[in-house]
Amino acid sequence: MKKKLWVCLAFSTVLVFLTYVKADAAERMIVGYTTGDSASYQSLAAYHDYINSIATDTFAFDAKGNLIGEAPENQLSFAEKHQIKTWAVISNYNEAIQDFDGDLASAVMTNETNRKRFTDQLVSLAKGHGYDGINIDFEAVFPEERSGYTKFIQYISDILKREGIQTMVSVPAKSADDPEDDWSWPYDYGKIGAAADFVQVMTYDEHGSWSEPGSVCSMGWIKSSLEFAVEEISSDKVIMGIPSYGYDWDLTDQGNNTLKQWNEIRTLKNETGAKPKYDSGTASMTFSYVDQKRHQHVVWYENENTVEMKSRLTNDDHLAGVSVYSLGYESESFWQAVQKGTE
Asked: What's 227-269 look like in SS3?
């Protein structure tokens, strides 16, 4: 009798566990960042079965806190029809300087009038276009404004929450809180995570066109970044980033380093006859080629196998989900790899 009871209890425990795992996987967020161009819409239409959220990266703001940009209505209508959650990305990208602008962020964070105007417009934007949430993406925040940025996020999150609007904050990846690191120090993971509903850790651009050649998101770098993130933030709020692009470094002319989209890399491999190699140290792919000017190039990127491997970290660390930057030039095989990794 006791043995039968134990077997019954054990079976029930396993059944509950499997049900929990299945529910956890079903609820995992798969966020696709989109731009306002037609390529993003085409990817959304083609691959929407693989995602459950989109974040439309189409908004910025001026120094007085007025929002700039347009909501991509075709994307939002499609998302509503297919029950895909929507986020409005608000960044401090300044078109005039073609870069993220710390001064612009400061102007809105430190001035009470500007801050209120900015936040009021966030509420109007979300309600007017049916956005489920706001994704704040302030980059190049000044190191001395770490505390100010935290208070800014707390202020925005409190107001949005009262209006039934969720808040997601994008932060640079880091494996430690280092005051000497001007790029990542301004982001207090713990306090930002306590205030926001989700924190999107940008685990991409470890290397890029501005740096020496290397993996865009090496496995060790992602792991150390996520380990730090979940120490500071509840893991069910953390979203890890996966790039749908790589970089091409011109070793002869550094001014000619370029970002290459997923499908562009495939074309480049075919045109140059390059022979890609798997780099076990980073769990990324790389190849070299010589262009028509006889310039030596090296390319680093992800393929289906490495995307799947890295997406599995969402399960290993029990994360809220994974985000992809960005929709527009990827293939279905990319999304199949993300799906396999997050199952």
From this structure: HHHHHHCCHHHEEEEEECEEEEEECCCHHHCEEEEHHHHHHHH
What are the residue ranges spanned by the domains of the chain? Answer: 28-243+303-342
Could you give the residue numbers annotated as active site? 139
Say how many Å lie between the first and final Cα of the chain, rounded.
38
Tell me if 244 sits within 8 A of 216, measured CB to CB: no
Q: What's the rounded Cα separation, in Å, for the pair 60 and 108?
A: 12
Q: Give residue 20's Cα distance to chain centre.
A: 26
Distance CA 281, CA 260 (A): 22
* Position 295 pLDDT exceeds 70: yes
Question: 3-state class of 127 per DSSP?
Answer: helix
> DSSP secondary structure string, 135-181?
EEE--S--GGGHHHHHHHHHHHHHHHHHTT-EEEEEEE--SS--TT-
Structure tokens at 332: 């279905």
The rounded distance, in Å, linking the Cα atoms of 292 and 23 is: 53
pLDDT tens digits along 90-131: 999 999 999 999 999 999 999 999 999 999 999 999 999 999
Token pair 């806190």 is at which residue?
A: 65
Query: What single letter denotes the amino acid at residue 20?
Result: Y
Report the C-alpha gap between 109 and 113 in whole angstroms.
Answer: 10
Measure the CA–CA gap between 30 and 322, rounded to whole angstroms.
5
The one-letter amino acid at 143: P
* Residue-wise pLDDT tens digits, 35-52: 999 999 999 999 999 999
Run of H or E including 117: helix 112-129
28-243+303-342: CATH superfamily: Glycosidases (3.20.20.80)
